[in-house]
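Thread title: Can someone regenerate the structure for this chain?

I was given the following input by a collaborator and told the matching structure tokens would be attached. They weren't. Posting the sequence so someone can regenerate them.
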Amino acid sequence: MKLIVGLGNPGKEYELTRHNTGFRTIDRIADILHVSVNKKECQALTGKVNYHDQQVVLMKPQTYMNSSGSAISALINYYHVNIADILVIYDDLDLKYGQLRLRLKGSAGGHNGIKSIINCLNTTEFKRIRVGIEKSAVIPVVDYVLGKVDKDKIELYEKSLDSAAKAAIEFIDVPFDKVMNKYNKENDD
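Best answer:
Regenerated them for you:
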């Protein structure tokens, strides 16, 4: 079984914010795989689908970003998912709009959602797709991540969500190092 997690905050007021990049990517994956992510379990909304003979659970934690790890940990235990079969998708201030970075493991890099996951799973070794939202030189980080994508950046941002969704779907049945090499190379151009 594969678990694909998108990080974000529940509630209408957060729906279109930069910090909900993970949720928005999960929505795209769900559309492509024709599954609804609306089942309430383990403090999350989930959708389960069979893709290429592989069971896949899509997850949107409903604990708010800074406590994402508790919901993910509960779902991992509930479904007995191996850490090697988890992929987490989230926003990254250190990448420009339109950029993706796929990683096998790593630190939290200042991202509180990832910090929570690392603390709850007691490991940094889970796969990730980081989606660029850039930094603002003038807006404080909390206000910036909880704000909406700038109109002149929407096209780049939307393309990165599409790419992240495609990469996540490839992760289901392609070794992650191959997916990582493909998408990281594309983003170096």
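The mean pLDDT is 95.
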